[in-house]
Amino acid sequence: MTTTPNHAQALRQRAGATIIPTGWPAYGAMQGQPESARWQLYEFSKRLRAELEGHGCLFVEPYDAFVRRVCEELQL
Fold this sequence. Notes:
41% helix, 2 strands, mainly alpha, 5% strand, 2 helices
């Protein structure tokens, strides 16, 4: 069994939920693509996260931090 080092920060996990770690997915490799392609990937990443959340996945990274990180990685 895995223990949480800081119980005050432990996530409340729903039965059977998958916890997605921070920083996934990463888009830094897409920086050289045209801006239109990077915007499409940005929209796709938001839809993907919404779909995963809709299926019960929990993300360690809050949504606002996710959007900020993806924008930075895609240089948008």
